[in-house]
Amino acid sequence: MEELLIQAVKDVNEKDILMLVDQAFATGYTPEQIIEILKRGMDCVGKEYEIGNYFIADLMMSGIIFKEILSQERMQPTSSKDDQNAQDTILVGTVKGDLHDIGKGLFSGMALSCGYHIVDLGVDVSPQAFVDQIKELKPQILALSGVLHTAIKSMKDTVDLIEKNGLRDQIKIIVGGNPLTLETFHFIGADAYSRDAAEGIKIIQNWIKEQE
Ligand code: B12
Q1: SUPFAM superfamilies in the record, alphabetically (predicted)?
Q2: Which domains, from first to last, does the chain contain?
């Protein structure tokens, strides 16, 4: 089943993907497990693009299908809402120059399901736009997303501008995305990093607990 679904995603075969997702649900896979399998398929799509077998249209199509599945009611994360968390605002956005928003959407969806108040600024968000929103909304947490290598520099520019505006002490910053490493995390100057949306949520939950 898993291999078939990965192959269907790799082939960008929408009909088979939807059918196999149905089957996965019927046989008891959780939304989290299905997302993980789909993600492995997306990695294959990315590799095919990298070696020149696929075009940008294939990347786009794979993204559209992934988003379509994520929007299904049954795919919504299962964690229980905690009304306590509604007081905590997380400002989210994909950094300047990067248009990828599926990982960010996953993260926001999970955070919402935990009851956090999410303000999502979308994609290609400039450092100044983040700073303006921090001043206006005073969120406890800033979550920056980026999957392009060039996103690392945009993340650093964002953290630097926050610092320059004297706002760094009032906000915890987590950066998320596949190209992040311990080294790039230190370069950026954030408080935490993760390549996994669910792990990112756990980090934030710990921060909030520490503050209480
Ligand atoms: C779909 C896709 C697209 C779609 C995006 C659609 C959309 N709405 O997002 C479109 C067609 C727009 C696109 C465009 C491009 N893409 Co593209 N794309 C992909 C692809 C195939 C899948 C991405 C995806 O959604 N994966 C599934 C999600 C769930 O994974 P994710 O976003 O990485 O999120 C996970 C983690 O990163 C992390 N995470 C992400 N955000 C956050 C935030 C927080 C707070 C936390 C905690 C965690 C977290 O958690 C998630 C898992 O739980 C990847 C291949 C791959 N291996 O990912 C290439 C890929 C990312 N793209 C790539 C490239 C090169 C491009 C283009 C430059 C191509 C071009 N020549 O134009 C453009 C760039 C446009 C731009 N300026 O951004 C490269 C990037 C190489 C690099 N690292 O620099 C990749 C890796 C493909 C490859 N192997 O070459 N792409």
Answers
A1: Cobalamin (vitamin B12)-binding domain, Methionine synthase domain
A2: 2-75 (1.10.1240.10), 83-211 (3.40.50.280)
